[in-house]
Design goal:
The complex is a heterotrimer of chains A (159), B (410) and C (288).
Chain A: H1 2-15, E1 22-25, E2 29-33, E3 42-47, E4 51-58, E5 61-66, E6 69-74, E7 78-79, H2 94-98, H3 100-114, H4 116-127, H5 133-140, H6 146-157
Antiparallel strand pairs in A: 1-4, 1-7, 2-3, 4-5, 5-6
Chain B: H1 3-12, H2 38-42, H3 56-59, E1 72-90, E2 93-113, E3 116-141, E4 144-171, E5 174-197, E6 202-227, E7 230-254, E8 257-268, E9 273-284, E10 290-299, E11 310-320, E12 325-334, E13 351-352, E14 354-364, E15 368-383, E16 393-409
Antiparallel strand pairs in B: 1-2, 1-16, 2-3, 3-4, 4-5, 5-6, 6-7, 7-8, 7-9, 9-10, 10-11, 11-12, 12-14, 13-15, 14-15, 15-16
Chain C: H1 2-21, H2 30-35, H3 38-44, H4 47-68, H5 74-88, E1 99-103, E2 110-113, E3 117-121, H6 122-127, H7 131-146, H8 149-154, H9 163-171, H10 177-197, H11 201-218, H12 222-234, H13 238-250, H14 254-268, H15 280-285
Parallel strand pairs in C: 1-3
Antiparallel strand pairs in C: 2-3
Helix pairs in contact in C: 4-9, 5-7, 7-11, 7-12, 9-10, 11-14, 12-14
The chains are: A alpha+beta (159), B mainly beta (410), C mainly alpha (288).
């Protein structure tokens, strides 16, 4: 009887999430809902990077299981791959030296990109189009914290 | 006249029943001598249900439809060292035959073509390069006391397969494919044996053998995904020789009749017969980093060649420790296709069953991969290395292969 | 012993059945997807690809800014960045840093450049009545980037030996005139797509759908975005004639777009959501 129970236990284990698709939360946070509809009750809110198990897919919604909750999440907020780290051409240094051959060109190009204005002004004269890297730099300099921005939106919509 | 008969008949013409019948080392008597392909070799050649790379042309062409990327090419260079030892054959001493070869043993390229994929590949599934010089001194035989017995042997025996493949999907879970190989084998062998008696009598035998054979080997493959992450593959093939020619020239001279040089030339155009081969494979793509697969290969018996049916089994696994490194390991059998050695019989073929283990590691970059791998196979069994003798000796074989390969996508 | 055999068989069968029952991968070729190994998946979208995309996106963004110029209003620009950044947290591309800018033109339009640069015109902000509508426009552009519509069209990838790697090398100091001209040609092509031909119409419809879902997820009233499209469609007069022609050349007709949006609203029951428009805060920050 013990043997039977053991086999049944392992068979349950094997037939369950071990083979199911793993997904990761990609948005800063994802609401897990009762039903595949924005009108349904919020069961839980999961932070970015949380690993969840896909149970079923229907239209724009995915039924998932995570942290004891089984519910629905918008398919746009989860993905099969864990969230990639922020890629910034400026945040290099250590990683650059490690994979120097492959990255070096991109690095030197950033340094040059910022100084392209002069060259491109000259180019504009010849080709007839204009580029404005100074304005681009101004846009780049606007630093906004993601979480703060999200809070700002939440404050606005909750009134 | 069969080729085996040629070797025996040479020995028969001599008085001394000491001469060895020289057959190829672990060659015709086994079907899985050199493992083919960068990825399959590390997985003990269990690839029938995987085959989603250029090596698929050799194992199961139906898998080619699942190769990733636009074009792919794979090239393998293998070094092999094989040794067969016959215990206590000559005056209590062992007779060892050794083969050492370095050969590019697979090349394959696959590309989309119309609705399916087309491939071209070249494989060397069997290679023997033997150089042997051995001297046995001071021992007795039924024909007299021997002061020294020298045997020099030089042999190159290569089998090539090359040809195109095509594969197409039937539906989402089923695909078929076919490979058409041209089979080419060339054997060149020189054997020199010299016996010097205590009485100062001598006997000398020189043999020069050359043979070529051409064949056509179509392979038909099917790949089926019955369930998520499971793949089943089936390949059927048969090699048919359409042209062969072998020539053996032997010369002998005995001190008893010093002025008599007996030269015998024998030729044969008999085509070797190959068995129908069926391979059934199953693979479990457990995750993007782990793959488990097994193969059963069945070779039908060929009674005209005195070959028994063979079933070989292989189990292979592949594990990606990161996106850049993959590790493979496997186990396989390479059973003898010769019948059991019966007591009372003479001139029977070696019967040695081999078991092998494999391991390899691959390093990936964006568009290329490099692999280093090793295979080791060994086994023991019975042999009758001395012609026209009912004596049965223990024999063992060891084979070690090391390979480096590269694949590129472009 | 027999019962053990039976159970083993049942176990094996259960494994197969559960495998079959587990949700199939949502791709064109599920069998091929399952066979993909770690090394192959890594090659799909890599760090190098994203770098190439950002490099390219900067060059294109600079052209957009060169053509229309940045609107000099720090408050408005910052506000648009906050809303945009907040919306981007719902996008499945956390590896990108989204930046937003207001273009100094009365034209009604918005542009997305690969790598995360998004522009909205002053003219559009004038027609927009509330934050929900602004969110709709920004979300539509964010969707173009998260779905890689432009990079896919131009096949921009960070391969070692590809043109994209050549971009980086060339941007870094110009290795040869030929590489530079190849890069320039590709940026020219992208500019043409943005300003003249437009992306595939299906991409536009998809972006509208994603926008509606994204702003709903954020808590905004999705019907507000639909109203904005209806308002723009209704605009008459010489002032808007040229503008509307550009819009209709580069996008599907407003009629088709609104029809597609209605379909999603019906499918997801978005009609019954009582979500916010956020009007007064918009009026507070956008004073043109």
């Amino acid at each position: 009887m013990k043997k039977v129970a053991l086999i049944l236990f392992f068979s349950f284990l094997y037939s369950s999430p071990v083979f199911a698709q793993e997904l990761y939360v990609k948005s800063i946070k994802a609401k897990i809902l009762d039903r595949p509809s924005l009108r349904s009750k919020v069961l839980n809110v999961l932070p970015r990077g949380t690993k969840v198990m896909e149970v079923y897919r229907e239209g724009k919604w995915v039924k998932i299981a995570a942290r004891g909750t089984v519910g629905w999440v918008s398919k746009y907020l989860v993905s099969k791959k864990p969230p990639m780290k922020r890629v910034s051409l400026l945040a290099r240094g250590k990683s650059l030296r490690k994979t120097s051959r492959r990255r070096a060109s991109a690095f030197t190009s950033v340094a040059a990109a910022r100084g392209l204005t002069d060259y491109d002004r000259a180019r504009a004269g010849r080709k007839g189009y204009v580029v404005d890297f100074a304005a681009l730099d101004k846009i780049d300099s606007i630093e906004i914290d993601e979480a703060a921005a999200l809070k700002f939106i939440e404050k606005g919509v909750s009134k | 006249m069969s080729r085996q008969f040629l070797n025996v008949s040479v020995s028969l013409s001599l008085v001394l029943s000491l001469f060895f019948s020289v057959n190829a080392v672990a060659d015709e008597n086994h079907y899985k001598n050199l493992l083919i392909g960068e990825r399959p070799a590390g997985m003990a050649g269990a690839y029938t249900a995987v085959s989603d790379s250029p090596e698929g042309a050799f194992y199961n062409p139906a898998g080619l439809v699942y190769s990733v990327g636009k074009s792919l090419s794979v090239s393998v260079n293998a070094y092999n060292n094989s040794r067969t030892t016959y215990d206590g054959v000559v005056g209590g001493s062992d007779w060892t035959r050794n083969s050492s070869t370095l050969v590019p043993n697979y090349f394959g390229i696959v590309q989309p073509w119309g609705k399916g994929k087309i491939a071209f590949s070249y494989a060397v599934p069997d290679v023997v390069e033997e150089d042997q010089n051995q001297e046995f001194t001071n021992f007795s035989t039924s024909s007299g006391s021997i002061k020294s017995f020298n045997i020099n042997l030089s042999e190159v025996d290569k089998t090539y397969k090359f040809g195109p493949s095509y594969a197409q999907k039937i539906n989402d879970s089923l695909s078929i494919g076919g490979t058409l190989y041209i089979h080419y084998r060339q054997v060149k062998r020189i054997v020199n044996q010299y016996v010097y008696y205590q009485t100062s009598n001598y006997e000398w035998n020189n043999l020069n053998y050359k043979s070529t054979e051409y064949g056509i080997e179509p392979k038909l493959g099917v790949m089926w995904s019955p369930a998520d992450k499971i793949s089943l593959g089936l390949t059927l093939s048969k090699n048919t020789i359409f042209s062969s020619h072998s020539r053996e020239q032997s010369t002998e001279n005995k001190s008893a009749t010093p002025t008599k040089n007996e030269t015998v030339v024998r030729t044969s155009d008999d085509d070797r017969k190959f068995p129908l081969t069926a391979s059934l494979g199953a693979a479990w793509f457990a995750s993007e980093s782990f793959l488990l697969t097994c193969d059963f290969d069945y070779f039908a018996e060929v009674s005209s060649e005195n070959r028994a049916s063979v079933v070989n089994f292989a189990l292979g696994s592949e594990y990606y420790s990161s996106e850049e490194y993959a590790w493979r390991a496997g186990f396989y059998t390479n059973m003898a296709n010769t019948p059991e050695v019966d007591s009372g019989g003479m001139n029977q073929q070696d019967n040695i069953d081999l078991y092998g283990i494999t391991a390899s590691v691959t390093r990936f970059t964006r568009s290329s991969a490099m692999t280093f791998g090793v295979n080791y196979a060994s086994g023991s069994g019975d042999a009758q290395p001395i012609s026209n003798s009912t004596s049965i000796f223990d024999a063992s074989t060891e084979s070690f292969t090391m390979y480096v390969s590269g694949s590129f996508s472009y | 012993m027999n019962s053990l055999k039976f159970i083993s068989l049942a176990l094996a069968l259960m494994m197969f059945v559960s495998c079959a029952a587990s949700p199939a991968n949502v791709t064109d070729d599920p069998v091929k997807e399952v066979r993909k190994r770690s090394s192959q998946k890594a090659m799909e979208i890599s760090h190098g690809d994203v770098e190439a995309e950002i490099q390219f996106g900067r060059e294109l963004a600079a052209r957009i800014l060169g053509k229309y110029r940045l609107y000099d209003n720090d408050t408005a620009n910052r506000y648009v960045n906050v809303i945009g950044k907040g919306l981007s947290t719902f996008s499945p591309r956390p590896e990108l840093e989204f930046k937003f800018g207001i273009l100094n033109t009365d034209m009604i339009n918005a542009f997305a450049s690969p790598g995360g640069y998004i522009f909205i015109t002053k003219g559009t902000l004038e027609i927009i009545e509330n934050e929900a509508q602004l969110a709709g426009v920004l979300a539509h552009e964010i969707a173009h980037i998260t779905e890689r519509h432009i990079v896919r069209e131009l096949d921009i990838k960070g391969r070692d030996d590809s043109a994209a790697a050549g971009f980086a090398a060339m941007l870094g100091g110009g290795t040869s005139e030929t590489i530079r001209s190849v890069f320039t040609q590709i940026v020219d092509k992208a500019s043409k797509i943005l300003f003249e031909d437009g992306l595939k119409f299906s991409d536009e419809i998809d972006s509208d759908a994603l926008s509606v879902m994204m702003i709903s997820n954020a808590g905004y009233n999705p019907l507000a975005y639909k109203k904005l499209l209806e308002d723009i469609a209704k605009k008459k007069g010489a002032k808007y004639k040229k503008n509307k022609k550009i819009l209709s050349d580069t996008h599907p007709s407003f009629k088709d777009r609104i029809k597609a949006i209605n379909k999603i609203i019906a499918e997801e029951g978005l009609n019954e959501l009582d979500y916010a428009n956020v009007k007064s805060r918009y009026k507070k920050y956008i004073k043109l």
